[in-house]
Design brief:
Layout: H1 2-5, H2 12-20, H3 23-32, E1 44-45, E2 53-64, H4 82-89, E3 94-99, E4 107-109, H5 111-119, E5 124-127, E6 130-131, H6 134-140, E7 144-146, E8 148-149, E9 158-163, E10 167-169, E11 172-174, E12 179-182, E13 187-190, H7 192-217, H8 230-253
Parallel strand pairs: 2-3, 3-5, 4-6, 5-7, 6-8
Antiparallel strand pairs: 1-7, 2-9, 2-12, 10-11, 12-13
């Protein structure tokens, strides 16, 4: 916990720039840094009322439940309250990330806990397991990602063992404070130490690729356009200058 508290804060601009970038763009940027597989494979957004999120990882680790530790006569009063503590501690720009060991035999959370996290200002809620109350979660319009939906309550299979420790989620290492970026395709993990360094190049790549996509969609061949040769890059820079000029003119005349 002491290492977490000593993490230097990231500026608003870092979050804003990363939020402009798709998971695919960030995967490319991370690949250049030698990080080959940072994507949480197999997780999908619950519902379609949000586009994505960017937030700092607040981690939660599950282990299998055991009958003498987690009595099943009342699943809401097992004494294992770490999950409640996490939801009541999570703050703005944090995303709860659950290591459910890829097990979907019971839920990692349901509508009540996810709603409370949303009200606390959390950026999202992610598990490599399942959620319950899928329809209710989908109606929240809050970034929630899971493998699937189940009705089975969490204590039937899981004990919440630790908070704010390094975990594995969908086969990817996640450390407290890492930056998670989600979109409609899924979620990518950006190591905290690389977040500020990658933010601007990722946003620039995103803008360039949107320009290139528009040209390919207009019917141009890939050759020379994707990946762009120097002529195409010069065209892009000229287009950028024109866009910036038009935007400045609109601002002055507003």
């Amino acid at each position: 916990m002491s290492e977490i508290s000593q993490q230097a804060p990231l500026g608003d601009e870092v979050f804003e720039l990363l939020g402009r970038s798709s998971t695919s763009t960030l995967a490319t940027q991370l690949y250049k840094k030698g990080i080959r597989q940072p994507f949480l494979v197999g997780l999908s957004p619950v519902g379609d009322k949000f586009e994505g999120f960017v937030g700092e990882a607040y981690t939660m680790r599950f282990i299998p439940a055991r009958e003498d530790i987690d009595p099943l006569d009342d699943p809401y009063r097992t004494g294992n309250v770490l999950q409640w503590e996490a939801v009541e501690q999570v703050g703005r720009r944090q995303v709860i990330v659950v290591d459910s060991r890829g097990d979907t035999s019971a839920a990692s959370a349901g509508d009540m806990l996810i709603t409370r996290a949303m009200k606390r200002g959390a950026a999202g809620f992610v598990t490599d397991g399942a959620f319950r109350d899928g329809h209710a979660i989908a109606e929240l319009g809050f970034p929630a990602y899971a493998k699937c939906i189940t009705a089975t309550t969490r204590p039937a299979s899981f004990h919440v063992a630790e908070l704010q420790v390094p975990i594995g989620c969908a086969g990817v290492a996640v450390y407290p404070g890492d930056i998670l970026v989600g979109d409609r395709d899924g979620i990518i993990v950006v190591p905290r130490a690389l977040a500020a360094e990658l933010a601007a190049p990722a946003a620039e790549q995103e803008a360039l690729e949107q320009y290139l996509h528009n040209r390919v969609r207009a019917g141009e061949s890939l050759w020379g356009v994707y990946p762009p040769d120097e002529h195409t890059l010069n065209d892009y820079r000229a287009w950028q200058r024109e866009q910036n000029h038009n935007n400045e003119t609109e601002r002055v005349n507003a």
